[in-house]
């Protein structure tokens, strides 16, 4: 078995793509030959959604449109009996330019886009742009980016798309549904995507998620920190509210804990995998309502549009990477965003939002071949992988797996090289922002979605609420001339309220996090949830004590009232006043008064958020005066 594996690795020890070499896992070779490029999110049983264009192999791209059926729908698009499409827009502010994309144009010969602009004085002006498809500069997935502008500010615009088609495939046009559904439908005839009126001025915002980025890997981001210089802020005690990719990213996008947004499943379970709660507002939705052009580019389907991450986005690209293939990596994500920036950047309009998800540091932590770590010890990696899946959290605590220090150090050397590779890609993006003059006014959030356990305690992978897993690396570059004060106690649920206030909006009532503008978090408890089918585990930190309570589960929801009243199954306390590599040093029993405060905080967290789920998340949840007073005393509100 080992001999055949060595032969296989010698046969294909390097995989070269666009000049970048990466190590391969054995399954790469099967995947290269056997992959089927049929996205699972294309389903024919729902006519409600239209987001998809014809993909290139392994590179899925789509433009997004909103529905006619929600209160947040600003720009309904209609198809007339003659096949033309039209849309009228009346954004909240004046504008000079409208961006859009014509998608699924493979069957068209020519495109004509016409616009009638209405100006503040009541006068109108007409503009048009025509494209011969054979000569047009097509981009991802056969899309045609278009812009139409006027010299004088406008308050309204009526846009019409006319097309000449020589090969009409006769597909049925359907009214676009806002990205709140989990079913998707493609349309093969040319269509107009959601128009984006470009607001004046603004702060470019970049949310850059580096998967599996531990706090102690920040030194591998030295090139980024050197480039940012004094502009970089590194919170000393950042936290993620989700212990792995799905719940962590949904908490980033919504500002709420995993038990509220509900995106906690693996995708293979019957419950808990269906995406972000449809009544929650996301960062891109807030920004698109404020005339931001929102784009996302990711390497993993866990952050795909079908799970709610496309809501509010105007375009989204998916360049898959996993432990089964290395056809794409972080370099492709940054390349795509730089291409978008090159098209989007306009001197007078900087309302741009980009979400990047770089997956490179994730298991199997395969470094670039240029790192000279060769050959990769796949047997040791596979041993660690056998400990990464946790079916019973408490059983692992009682019977932790073991590996030698040499084995763990070898795996960590792969991991740190992969983190360095991701850092180098982000460095290219920052350099480009400086090159085009967008750097100083940009808001950059570089964060891990979670960390990673390497058996420092009982766990491997990201199944726990240990510090190694819930204390991610985080680097913030605030925009110039801002009142954003980054706290040491930065949480990923703070991103949404901070961005909302940055663009002049009140944070939605759903927010569990707090805005960083002139807000102190010093006395607030820190909470991370593990919502899994085996147990519900909550980590709460207060007054130099970290408490980890584990309850019987009510997956994917919070434990029931009776489960909480019956008490936790397992309780552990850690002294956080002294740390080694981010881990609490000792099991300890805090003073009884503090134990009582912690118990009250945990019980109130569960009961309050369980009540939120029984109502609409953005409705005010009523609590008694006694509870309000006790929560305030405990520093919880």
What labels would you give this structure?
637 residues; Jelly Rolls; 7-stranded mixed sheet; 22% strand; globular; disordered C terminus
Molecular structure report:
This is Sulfatase-like hydrolase/transferase. One of its GO terms (molecular function) is hydrolase activity. Keywords: Hydrolase. With 637 residues, this protein is an alpha+beta fold. It folds into three domains: 116 residues, Jelly Rolls, CATH 2.60.120; 261 residues, Alkaline Phosphatase, subunit A (3-Layer(aba) Sandwich); 109 residues, no CATH class. It has 15 helices and 26 strands. The strands form seven sheets. The protein has a seven-stranded mixed beta sheet with strand order 3-15-14-16-13-17-20, sandwiched between helices. A five-stranded antiparallel beta sheet has the order 4-5-10-7-8, with no helix packed on it. It starts with a helix and ends with a helix. The N terminus and C terminus are likely disordered.
């Amino acid at each position: 078995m080992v001999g055949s594996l060595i032969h296989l690795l010698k046969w294909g020890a390097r995989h070269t793509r666009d000049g970048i070499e990466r190590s391969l896992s054995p399954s790469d070779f099967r995947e290269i030959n056997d992959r089927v490029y049929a996205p699972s999110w294309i389903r024919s049983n729902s006519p409600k959604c239209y987001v998809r264009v014809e993909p290139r192999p392994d590179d899925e791209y789509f433009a997004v449109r909103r529905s006619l059926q929600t209160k947040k729908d600003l720009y309904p698009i209609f198809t007339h009996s003659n096949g033309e499409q039209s849309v009228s827009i009346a954004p909240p502010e004046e504008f000079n330019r409208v961006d859009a994309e014509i998608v699924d144009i493979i069957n068209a010969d020519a495109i004509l886009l016409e616009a009638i602009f209405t100006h503040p004085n009541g006068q109108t002006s007409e503009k048009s742009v025509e494209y011969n498809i054979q000569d047009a500069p097509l981009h991802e997935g056969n899309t045609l980016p278009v812009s139409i502008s006027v010299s004088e500010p406008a308050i309204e615009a009526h846009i019409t798309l006319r097309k000449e088609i020589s090969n009409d495939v006769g597909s049925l046009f359907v009214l676009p549904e806002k990205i709140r559904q989990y079913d998707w439908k493609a349309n093969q005839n040319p269509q107009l995507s959601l128009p984006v009126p470009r607001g004046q001025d603004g702060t470019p915002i970049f949310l850059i998620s580096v998967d599996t980025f531990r706090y102690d890997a920040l030194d591998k981001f030295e090139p980024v920190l050197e480039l940012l210089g004094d502009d970089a802020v590194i919170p000393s005690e950042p936290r993620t509210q989700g212990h792995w990719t799905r719940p962590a990213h949904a908490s980033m996008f919504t500002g709420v804990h995993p038990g509220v947004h509900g995106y906690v499943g693996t995708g293979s379970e019957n419950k808990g995998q269906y995406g972000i709660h449809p009544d929650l507002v996301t960062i891109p939705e807030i920004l698109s309502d404020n005339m931001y052009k929102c784009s996302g580019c990711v390497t993993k389907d866990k952050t795909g549009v079908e799970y709610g991450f496309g809501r509010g986005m105007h375009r989204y690209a998916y360049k898959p990477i996993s432990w089964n293939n290395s056809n794409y990596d972080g370099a492709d994500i940054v390349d795509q965003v730089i291409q978008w920036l090159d098209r989007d950047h306009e001197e007078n309009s900087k309302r741009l939002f980009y979400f990047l998800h770089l997956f490179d540091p994730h298991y199997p932590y395969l470094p670039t071949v240029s790192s000279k770590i060769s050959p990769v010890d796949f047997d040791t990696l596979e041993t660690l992988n056998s400990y990464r899946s946790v079916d019973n959290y408490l059983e692992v605590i009682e019977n932790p797996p073991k590996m030698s220090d040499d084995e763990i150090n070898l795996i960590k050397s792969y991991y740190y090289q992969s983190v360095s590779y991701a850092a180098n890609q982000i460095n290219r993006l920052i350099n480009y922002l400086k090159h085009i003059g967008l750097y100083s006014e940009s808001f950059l959030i570089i964060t891990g979605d979670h960390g990673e356990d390497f058996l420092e305690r009982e766990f491997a992978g990201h199944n726990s609420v240990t510090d190694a897993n819930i204390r991610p690396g985080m680097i913030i570059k605030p925009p110039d001339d801002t009142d954003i004060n980054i706290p040491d106690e930065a949480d990923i649920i703070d991103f949404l309220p901070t961005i909302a206030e940055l663009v002049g909006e009140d944070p939605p009532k759903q927010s569990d996090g707090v805005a960083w503008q002139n807000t102190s978090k010093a006395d607030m408890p820190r909470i991370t949830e593990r919502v899994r089918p085996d147990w519900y585990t909550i980590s709460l930190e207060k007054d130099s004590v970290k408490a980890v309570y584990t309850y019987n589960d009510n997956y994917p929801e919070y434990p029931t009232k009776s489960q909480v009243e019956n008490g936790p199954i397992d309780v552990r306390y850690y002294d956080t006043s002294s740390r080694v590599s981010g881990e609490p040093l000792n099991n300890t029993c805090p003073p009884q008064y503090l134990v009582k405060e912690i118990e009250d905080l945990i019980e109130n967290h569960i009961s309050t958020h369980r009540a939120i789920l029984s109502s609409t998340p953005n409705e005010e949840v009523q609590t008694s005066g006694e509870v309000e007073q006790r929560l305030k005393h405990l520093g919880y509100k």
